[in-house]
């Protein structure tokens, strides 16, 4: 992507062509580094959440973790913008006053996706707490299907035949995995302490639906916007923090008042929160050097990593049905990320969703996942 999106920069610079072999070698190395970072970020968040939620002892409040991640994300974006303004505090304050207060109607548009993303982040904790990490990782790829459907309905995007085929394979793969897990659940009535498979499955499906809708809605907002990705993160994070606090008070208010906001926080929990807060922002930078195929490959490979680690860390059993279902999902993710045979315009070049962030739009690779997440929803600036 780093080599393909700079069509307008090469005009009139003839000497750059002589350095192209070295530059292409640098880009190639950066792509492999990007691949590694994307895989680690996709797999580590899910595995670490599963790990901290299944440990014995005091459990932290997931609603407080969601709020803390939003606060850290906003603070990070503020520091990045301050750095971009070379420490000019007056210019920094004026910029935010104009972008957030003066253009309040534009800011208010982000209340809807912020509400959905806050819900989604909380649902991810519920889902991962009740589902095996590998099962969640496979099932969560349904967000690609929901994002595609909402894009067709809301943005009038067109999908290639290969993409439609990949969506069918994706659905089939997830269905096979769920059938396999249902069979296991009937054989062993106890899946773990305080775990409810049905609750986890509903949570991940609702999360996929909200991910698809919010990502497409957010892309629609950004299409006519000139605001930077960092400013949008701040606007989104302000609403996310306020809505997260409301949800925390509604769900765990009395318990947090008694035990404290940071109850149950361990170094591992802080690691999960930092991964959530900075994961999507990190991908936003990394994806500059990774094309759409590489992102799809990273998502596929992270499923394999999650499955292998789950076998050793959680005693997860991989059988033929799970392997078949996961294989279909991995193949579908890769197929969906393949470029169209004949792209009519740059604006329809990409529709991909990656793990813990909003996927980047066709015109601006820096508009990657605003929530870590995971996940990733497509948007364009």
TrEMBL record:
Record's GO cellular component terms: Golgi membrane
| Compositional bias segments (type: Gly residues) | 1-13
- SUPFAM superfamilies (alphabetical): Multidrug resistance efflux transporter EmrE
- Where in the sequence does UniProt note compositional bias of the Low complexity kind? 344-364
Among the GO molecular function terms of this UniProt record, one is: pyrimidine nucleotide-sugar transmembrane transporter activity
The protein's topology relative to the membrane is: Multi-pass membrane protein
Going by the entry's taxonomy, the superkingdom of the source organism is recorded as Eukaryota
- Keyword set, alphabetical order: Golgi apparatus, Membrane, Sugar transport, Transmembrane, Transmembrane helix, Transport
- Where, subcellularly, is it found? Golgi apparatus membrane
**Where do the record's region annotations for Disordered lie?**
1-22, 344-381
Matching entries from InterPro entries are given as: EmrE-like, Nuc_sug_transpt
Q: Where are the transmembrane segments?
A: 32-52, 64-83, 162-179, 199-218, 230-250, 262-287, 294-314, 320-338
Q: Which family does it belong to?
A: Belongs to the nucleotide-sugar transporter family. SLC35A subfamily.
- Indicate what this protein is called per its UniProt record: UDP-galactose translocator isoform X2
Q: What is the lineage of its organism?
A: Eukaryota, Metazoa, Chordata, Craniata, Vertebrata
């Amino acid at each position: 992507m780093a080599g393909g999106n700079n069509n307008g920069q090469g005009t009139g610079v003839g000497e750059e062509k002589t350095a192209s072999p070295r530059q292409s070698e640098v880009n190639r190395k950066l792509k492999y580094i990007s691949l590694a970072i994307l895989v680690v970020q996709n797999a580590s968040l899910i595995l670490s959440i599963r790990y901290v939620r299944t440990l014995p002892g005091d459990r932290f409040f997931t609603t407080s973790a969601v709020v803390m991640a939003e606060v850290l994300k906003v603070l990070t974006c503020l520091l990045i913008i301050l750095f971009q303004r070379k420490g000019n505090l007056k210019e920094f304050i004026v910029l935010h006053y104009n972008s957030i207060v003066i253009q309040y109607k534009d800011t208010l548009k982000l209340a809807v996706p912020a509400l959905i993303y806050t819900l989604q982040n909380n649902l991810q904790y519920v889902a991962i707490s009740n589902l095996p990490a590998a099962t969640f990782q496979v099932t969560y790829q349904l967000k690609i299907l929901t994002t595609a459907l909402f894009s067709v309905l809301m943005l009038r995007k067109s999908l290639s035949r290969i993409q439609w085929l990949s969506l069918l394979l994706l659905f089939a793969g997830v269905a096979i995995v769920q059938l396999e897990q249902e069979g296991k659940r009937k054989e062993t009535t106890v899946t773990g302490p305080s775990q409810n498979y049905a609750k986890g499955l509903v949570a991940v499906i609702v999360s996929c639906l909200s991910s698809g809708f919010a990502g497409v809605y957010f892309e629609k907002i950004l299409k006519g916007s000139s605001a930077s990705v960092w400013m949008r993160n701040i606007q989104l994070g302000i609403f996310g923090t306020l809505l997260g606090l409301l949800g925390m008070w509604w769900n765990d208010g009395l318990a947090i008042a008694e035990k404290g906001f940071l109850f149950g926080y361990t170094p591992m929990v802080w690691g999960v929160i930092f991964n959530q807060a900075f994961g999507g922002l990190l991908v936003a930078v990394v994806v500059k050097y990774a094309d759409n195929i590489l992102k799809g490959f990273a998502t596929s490979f992270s499923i394999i990593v999650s499955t292998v680690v789950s076998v050793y860390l959680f005693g997860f059993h991989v059988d033929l049905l799970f392997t078949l279902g996961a294989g279909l999902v991995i193949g579908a993710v890769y197929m969906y990320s393949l470029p169209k045979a004949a792209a009519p315009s740059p604006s329809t070049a990409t529709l991909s969703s990656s793990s813990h962030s909003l996927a980047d739009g066709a015109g601006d690779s820096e508009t990657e996942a605003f929530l870590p997440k995971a996940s990733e929803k497509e948007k364009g600036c």
